[in-house]
Amino acid sequence: MFRYEVRGPAAWLIIDDPERRNPLSLPVMEELRDALGTAAADRMVRVVVVTGAGDRAFSAGGDLAGGFFDKPLELHHQRGALADVFRLMRRLGKPTIARVNGHALAGGFGLAAACDIVVAVEQARFGTPEIDVGLWPMMIGAVLVRCMPRRAVLELMLTGRLIDAVEAKALGAVSRVVPPDRLDDEVDALVAQLAAKSPVILRLGRDAFYAVDDLGFDEALDHLQAGLTSVASTDDGAEGVRAFLEKRSPEWMGR
């Protein structure tokens, strides 16, 4: 139901249940969480790609048929695995790419939106249809309101309406929309581009980007000023400036 594969500089996290549209069952969420920890600890992994198997769905969200919402009180802590996944993705220290090969709905929408870069095929659909089965998209709301306008998120949650990839891109939930036959080429090119950057600068910059989400303006500036000093103090920062002045490609040391 889940696969972890290292392909060159990228770790691929693949929900592998295409016949059921790659649902986020409790075991899958736990495996996602563990896989993120593995990728974070592997120095050879520079980028993480999250996707679903097949060509119908990235993920249709919580596994309604598999007991995801059975025993609401008893399973409270287990369902927190999805919150753990979102937290780990924020704190991963490495860029993440959602390879959206089909519909991304409910928790699947949140999982895709939690990635730094979202590449979606033209026929993909996005939405929060939980309201239609008497539920509400709770945890993914924390992700969606940080990449889309709040009123747009609320309207989708209230109505359960699905949107296409073009509208999702206009709202900020998708980075790039491509034909299906271009999806893998686009993802591979992004992986190569990101893997060519300094890993320590990517980590410091990405951490700073997310850290200021909930800070006031003055606090954000103070935090980012400190971040600039941290970046400038790295060996890679010094190497990058030298390489620019010497008109050559930098040789990153990762520190």
Name the helicity range.
40-55%
Distance between termini? 37 Å
| Count of helical stretches | 10
In the sheet with the most strands, the strands line up as: 1-2-3-5-7-10
Radius of gyration: 19 Å
Q: Sheet with the most strands?
A: 6 strands, mixed
Q: Bin the strand percentage.
A: 15-25%
User: Which ranges are low-confidence, i.e. pLDDT below 50, for 5 or more consecutive residues?
Assistant: none
Could you say which overall geometry the principal axes of the C-alpha atoms support? globular
Overall description:
- Strands 1-2-3-5-7-10 form a six-stranded mixed beta sheet, sandwiched between helices.
- It contains ten helices and ten strands.
- The longest helix has 16 residues, at 26-41.
- By secondary structure, it is α/β, with parallel strands linked by helices.
- It has helices at 26-41, 76-90, 107-113, 140-144, 150-159, 165-170, 183-195, 199-211, 217-232, 235-245, and strands at residues 2-7, 10-15, 47-52, 57-59, 96-100, 103-105, 117-121, 125-127, 162-164, 176-178.
- α1 packs parallel to α2 (76-90) and α8 packs antiparallel against α9.
- The radius of gyration is 19 Å and the shape is globular.
Annotate the secondary structure layout.
Blueprint: E1 2-7, E2 10-15, H1 26-41, E3 47-52, E4 57-59, H2 76-90, E5 96-100, E6 103-105, H3 107-113, E7 117-121, E8 125-127, H4 140-144, H5 150-159, E9 162-164, H6 165-170, E10 176-178, H7 183-195, H8 199-211, H9 217-232, H10 235-245
Parallel strand pairs: 2-3, 3-5, 4-6, 5-7, 6-8, 7-10
Antiparallel strand pairs: 1-2, 8-9
